[in-house]
Amino acid sequence: MTRSTRIFLSCIYWAFVLYVFVPLFLMVLMGFKDSKFIGFPIKSWTLEWYLGVFEDAEVLSVFGYSIAIAVLSTLISIAVGLWIAVLLEGRTFWGKAVIFGLAILPALVPGIISAIAFRIYARLLGIEPGMFAIIWSHAVHNVPFVVLVVMARLSTLPKSQIEAARDLGADPLIAFLRITLPYLTPAIMGASIFCLLLSFDDFVRSFFLGSYEPTLPVLIFAKLRSGMSPEINAIATVALVLTAVLGIWAERYMRRLNRGADR
Q1: How far apart, in whole angstroms, are the C-alpha atoms of residue 83 and residue 44?
Q2: How many domains, the chain?
Q3: Coil, strand or helix: which one is 33?
Q4: Has residue 32 been placed in a domain?
Q5: What is the DSSP secondary structure assignment for residue 176, as one 8-state letter?
Q6: Could you list the residue range(s) of the whole structural domain that residue 203 is in?
Q7: Could you read off the pLDDT of 38-48 as tens digits, one per residue?
């Protein structure tokens, strides 16, 4: 690679970094503006909007509601996705391609179409809009990502370990619990964090299947109807910091798990 090519690629990289992070930086700055309107210049600064996030009972309740939905939908996604991945990986049987295609399909359907379909299906099943309906839709949407991540990890599992466990008298369940599951722990953790973030950030399905209690993205959307304000920026910044901290912790934790699993 020539020097000019490296310089060109470096310029593209830093341009992309600026494109991603400058809007986020401006969003954080606007949360400190001592005014109800968004815009430059910022003549005076205040912590009022950020402090208001932690003093507003409605906002805190919505944060808790969104986190509860994310956690519960993630647990369901992991259980179902892990089962499908173990079923498909390393086996050949009639209909395997069909099962794999159906498992991945929810990730390929556009969000708005998926939300409308879930809304119609929920009415057909008699499921009322609310927390359960949102958890159900988020879990179905997240299962494909669990399947793909777990199958990728499962494909690298040395078959000799399973065979050794079976030779020592372990039945399939014990071999799975003692050998396969610990080996899959990094993938399960990674898929869990990804599903948590997807669910926490999901707007379309939450909007179509929610009731009077909104999730965080729906609340921000509702507040946007009256115009942009530093309050919205403060709420979005707190959510951004929470997800960034979770992502950084997960990345470091997964590195330790991978090192431990590969020893």
Answers
A1: 55
A2: 1
A3: strand
A4: no
A5: I
A6: 47-262
A7: 777 777 888 88
